[in-house]
Amino acid sequence: MKSRLFLTITLLVLSFLLISPALAAPKVILDGQQLTFDVPPVVDQGRVLVPMRAIFETLGASINWDPAAKTVSATKEQTTVKLTIGIRTAYKNGTPGTLDVPPKIVGGRTLVPLRFVSEALGSEVLWDGKTQTVTINSTSGVKVTVHIIDVGQGDAIYISLRDHNDILIDGGDNTQGSAVVSYLTNQGIDDIELLVATHPHADHIGGLDDVLAAFKVEAVVDNGMVVDTATYRDYRDAVKAEGCPYQKAVPGQSWVFGSYALKALGPVRDHGDANNNSVVCLLDCGEIEFLFTGDAEAEAEADLLGKAVAAEILKVGHHGSRTSTSQAFLAAVSPEVAVISVGAGNTYGHPAASTLQRLKDMGVGISRTDQNGTVIITTDGKTYHVIAKPPSMPPVINKSSPPDESVQPVEPASTGKYVGSAKSDKYHLPSCRYAEQIAPENRVWFSSEAEAQAAGYVACKVCGG
Ligand SMILES: [Zn+2]
Ligand SMILES: [Zn+2]
Fold it and tell me: Which residue among 9, 231, 293, 357 sits deepest, i.e. has the most Cβ atoms within 10 Å of its Cβ?
C-alpha cells in the first residue's frame, strides 16, 4: 500500500513537471525587475539558457544574426560577443572562450547561456540554486575606483577599472616614488596598462622612475615636452628602459578599456609653458565623468571651453592655485565634487582662497589631500561615492583633566556602521571576521546599508552586512 502511494505521488510529480515546464523554469531578475520571456529559460547541465533576442535587448545590446553561419553577434558600446548554435567556442571582442553549454534552438527560439552573455556585456550574474533565481546587476558589477593619492605637494592618481585595467596619472615628486609604489602594490595591481605623465614638473613625474622600475607598464603618454632637469632625465631613461610604446597625447584620442574610455582633451596647443601644456583627460564611466587637468591654468582651460568637458568629478588644476579653475571653465565643467591634490603647509599658498571661494559659490563639494588624505571615489557608472577621511582635529586641551588625559585623541580615520573593502563588493558589520581581515587602507565605510548598496556593495553572507 505504502509503495503504491509513493509510486502514485512520484508519477504525479513527474507528469506535473512534464506538462508544466514553465514552473520549473528559473526566474531571471535584472536590476530588481523580474524578466518575462515568451520562451521560458531552461537549465541545461546546471547552466541557465535564455532567449537570445530578449536578453540581448534587455541588456542594451544590438543583435546581428547570420542564419547561414548560425552565428549571432551582439554589440554593446565597445564590446561585441559572438556565439554559434551548437558550438562551445564563443568570442568576446575576438578573443575565444569556452562555454559549458553551447547556444541551442528550443521551440524555434535561440537560447544562449545567460552568464556568458551578461558578464561579457559588463553585468554581474548571481545564481541562487535554492530559489532557481538568476540575479543580474547591470551596473554594480562595473566598478571604477579612482584614488587621488596623498603625495603631499604633487599629483598621483590611480584609476582601477574592471578586468585588471590600471591607469596611473602622475607619480608625485622624487621623494614619493616608493610611497606610490607601495600604495599600488597594496592595491594588488599586476601591471599598469596606461601611464600618463601630465607635464614634466618634478611634483608630477618625480616618482615615475620608481613606478616604471617596479611595475610592467604597457604604454606611456606625456605632453611631449623635453626639459633639461635631472628629474626629467630619470623619467625619460626609465621610460626607455621599459621599452613600451611611448607617445605624445593627441586631443581627441581615446584609450578604451571595456566599457570605459579615457579621452585626451588637451593640450590643445603649445603654450610654451609646462603647466598649460598639461595632458588633460576625461574618464568616461557611463553617466559619471572624471576630469583630470594636471596643472592646467586659465589659458589652457580657455582652449577647452565649448568642448565636452562636463564632469561630475573635477581633479582641480594646479593644486588649487588662483591661476587655475577659472569661473568660465568651472561653469563648463559644472562638477559636483572637486578634489584638490595639495601638500599641507606648502610654500605656494595652494589652494588659493579665491579658488576655494569659486568652488564654494558653485556649491561644489571639496575634498583635499592635505586635509582628507588619499581621496577615493568609486562609481558603478550611474552613481558615485566619495571616500575621504575627515580632517584631523587639533588636540583639544581640557584644563580640568589631569595632565596625562589632557590631550584628547585626534579624530579617528573614517568610521561608520558598515565597512567594505575597496577590493571586493561585500559590506560587513565591523565585528565580522571578514571585516577584520580588510587592510586599513582598503576599508570603505558606510553610514547605512542603503549607502553601501548605492555604492554597489552587497551584504556579507556571514554577518548579513
Ligand atoms: Zn604640480
Ligand atoms: Zn606643474
Answer: 293
pLDDT in tens, 109-154: 888 888 888 878 777 677 777 778 887 766 544 479 999 999 999 9
Which DSSP string corresponds to 362-382? Answer: TT-EEEEHHHH-SEEEEE-SS
Q: Determine the distance separating the centroid of ligand 1 and the alpha carbon of 334, expressed in angstroms.
A: 23
Instruction: Please tell me the distance from the alpha carbon of residue 369 to that of residue 198, in angstroms, as a whole number.
Output: 19
Instruction: Return the domain boundaries, the chain.
Output: 22-137, 144-387, 412-459
Cα of 271 to ligand 1 centre, how many Å?
Answer: 16
Amino acid at the residue 251: P
Q: What ligand has the least distance to the C-alpha of 203?
A: 1
Second-level CATH architecture of 22-137: 2-Layer Sandwich (3.30)
Question: Does the predicted model carry a pTM greater than 0.70?
Answer: no
With left for phi above 0 and alpha for psi between -120 and 50, is residue 464 left, alpha or beta?
left
Residue appearing with cell numbers 589631500? 369
pLDDT tens track for 73-96: 888 877 888 999 999 999 988 888
Taking the centre of ligand 2 as the mean of its atom positions, its distance from the CA of residue 441, in whole angstroms, is 28
Q: Which ligand is nearest to the CA of 227?
A: 2
Q: Report the top-level CATH class of 144-387.
A: alpha beta
DSSP H helices in 305-395? 327-333, 353-361, 369-372
Query: How many angstroms separate the alpha carbon of residue 230 from the centre of ligand 2?
Result: 16
188: CA distance to ligand 1 center in Å? 27
